[in-house]
Design goal:
Blueprint: H1 3-32, H2 43-57, E1 62-68, E2 71-74, E3 77-78, H3 86-98, E4 101-107, H4 112-124, H5 132-142, E5 149-152, H6 159-193, H7 201-216, H8 219-224, H9 233-251, H10 256-267, H11 278-281, H12 289-295, H13 298-306, H14 314-325, H15 346-360, H16 373-382, H17 390-400, E6 408-411, E7 416-421, E8 433-438, E9 449-451, E10 465-469, H18 471-474
Antiparallel strand pairs: 1-2, 1-4, 2-3, 4-5, 6-7, 6-10, 7-8, 8-9
Helix pairs in contact: 1-2, 1-3, 1-4, 2-4, 6-7, 6-9, 7-9, 7-10, 9-10, 9-15, 9-17, 10-14, 13-14, 14-15, 15-16
């Protein structure tokens, strides 16, 4: 095993243990809010937490869980905000903030009793009263608890640190908004399944936040569309369609209000998929003709559910139109079949494009093996004027780039990189910013950004894309570079 491989393996193991620490601490907090320290319900969570700490103590006598901005750190390692730990991650984040706790430092030798006592005192603290940190510190002292130690949450004031924190916070805010939107879609879907009253108010607020983010800088949100969760495919797909639709709407010069309507249409275009049996929706092999008939009915199911929503207004009507039209195709060759031909709405034509693109680049719809982003674009461009509005297709290419964000590319330096930011200049769409992920020798790189517009002294471009690479064949998880 090479040194680089060993280091990578060690980092991945610590990152996994860090996720476990956050999850288990969240469970301890929630359990301690219901039961006191002596209750048997705390035994298993405390044992699990102690075991994870024990694995970390093998290499370090102290383990620090720290909060900086919106991010959680295990020692010096920033923990990635993955979908599977999102809820517990945010719970720990918020509970530490409420108590003004910047770090919790666990030392080797801590036992189950100390873990129970600490989690009980931490969870039961009344954060509505002033000086929560000082009161928690005093309660720990009165209980004779010196392990773990807590450190105060301090504000960073140096200019460089503030600038970095601002950049990191913007990224964290984008991730938080993305995952909050996934959760909101899931809640609406579950309400529909249970035949409960459905309200889109929370979803609308989140989409408005997404509109604000994409109007400031769209590359971070576009990068997050590379996230895939097989268990939550429909929810992730809906959020990705929302983001990609907003990217087109922004280039059309839409107002915030119209962007919000477009985003909501993207978010709930597949609401009717709740009516499709899970064994069909999640089928790992190709659909039969009968199963395709069922799948093709989901736009009708979507319309039926959307018209049941509270407060039918202009926005709800446009969202319904987007849901109905997104599989009709530009030339009406799609489904559902219409008794009378008519022109598709602009909103429907936009959703049609972005829905297909995200479906093609995912591993759940159409092809079970996803298309690399650049090949998906080429395929869609070949259907321009038939399945897709040709003008909107050009706008879409301009929005995501000739090499879309998330494309894996081989450079003329024999390095491999992932397209990280598209070039806003349409004439330089083939020269994005690329994050190095592998050096010329095949070792994992540290992710430095390379601007493909950079020139040498003689006026020639320093870097060229030789060709795009299929990330699936190289078994490279592109998504990890965006979280």
């Amino acid at each position: 095993m090479s040194r680089n491989t060993a280091v990578r393996s060690y980092d991945e193991e610590r990152a996994q243990l860090g996720k476990q620490v956050v999850n288990q601490f969240a469970i301890l907090i929630k359990t301690s809010q219901i039961h006191d320290a002596g209750n048997v319900a705390l035994q298993q969570p405390a044992e699990n937490f102690g075991k994870t700490l024990g694995d970390l103590f093998i290499d370090d006598p102290e383990v620090a869980l720290s909060l900086e901005g919106e991010a959680l750190f295990l020692g010096d390692m920033k923990l990635k905000l993955d979908i599977d730990i999102f809820t517990n991650f945010m719970l720990v984040n918020e509970e530490m903030k409420k108590r003004k706790v910047g770090s919790i430092v666990f030392s080797r030798g801590i036992g189950e009793r100390e873990i129970r006592k600490f989690s009980s005192l931490f969870a039961s603290l009344d954060t509505r009263l002033p000086e929560p940190f000082e009161r928690l510190e005093k309660e720990l002292e009165d209980a004779g608890l010196t392990n773990p130690q807590i450190l105060f949450l301090e504000e960073k004031k140096e200019k460089e640190e503030v600038a970095q924190a601002t950049e990191d916070n913007e990224k964290d805010l984008a991730k938080k908004t993305y995952f909050n939107t996934v959760t909101a879609v899931g809640e609406v879907m579950e309400s529909v399944k249970l035949r409960q009253a459905v309200s889109l108010k929370r979803a609308k607020r989140i989409v408005q936040s997404m509109v604000d983010l994409i109007m400031q800088e769209d590359s971070t949100l576009l990068g997050l569309t590379n996230l895939r969760s097989h268990d939550e495919y429909t929810y992730n797909h809906s959020v990705n369609v929302c983001i990609l639709a907003l990217a087109i709407g922004q280039r059309l010069g839409y107002s915030k209000k119209r962007l919000c309507e477009l985003g909501m249409a993207g978010l709930f275009h597949d609401l009717g998929k709740f009516g499709i049996p899970l064994d069909v929706l999640n089928k790992p092999t190709d659909f039969t003709e009968e199963e395709w008939k069922v799948m093709r009915r989901h736009p009708i199911f979507s319309v039926k559910e959307l018209v049941r929503l509270k407060g039918v207004n202009d926005m709800a009507i446009r969202v319904t139109i987007g849901a109905f039209e997104h599989h009709l195709n530009y030339d009406l060759s799609g489904y559902p079949k219409l008794a009378k031909k008519r022109n598709l709405s602009l909103l429907g034509r936009i959703i049609c494009i972005v829905d297909c693109y995200d479906a093609l680049t995912s591993s759940r719809v159409y092809n079970r093996v996803p298309f690399p982003p650049d090949k998906a674009l080429r395929f869609m461009l070949s259907k321009s004027g038939k399945a897709f509005d040709p003008i909107l297709m050009k706008l879409f290419v301009n929005a995501i780039g000739v090499y879309p964000i998330g494309t894996l590319v081989l450079l003329n330096t024999k390095e491999i990189g992932v397209v990280f930011t598209s070039n806003p200049n349409p004439e330089r769409g083939d020269r994005p910013k690329v994050k190095r992920v592998m050096d010329a020798e095949g070792n994992e790189a540290h992710g430095e950004l390379v601007d493909l517009c950079e020139q040498n002294e003689s006026g020639h471009f320093k870097y060229e894309i030789v060709n795009a690479i299929d990330a699936g064949k190289y078994k490279i998880d592109v998504a990890k570079y965006f979280v």
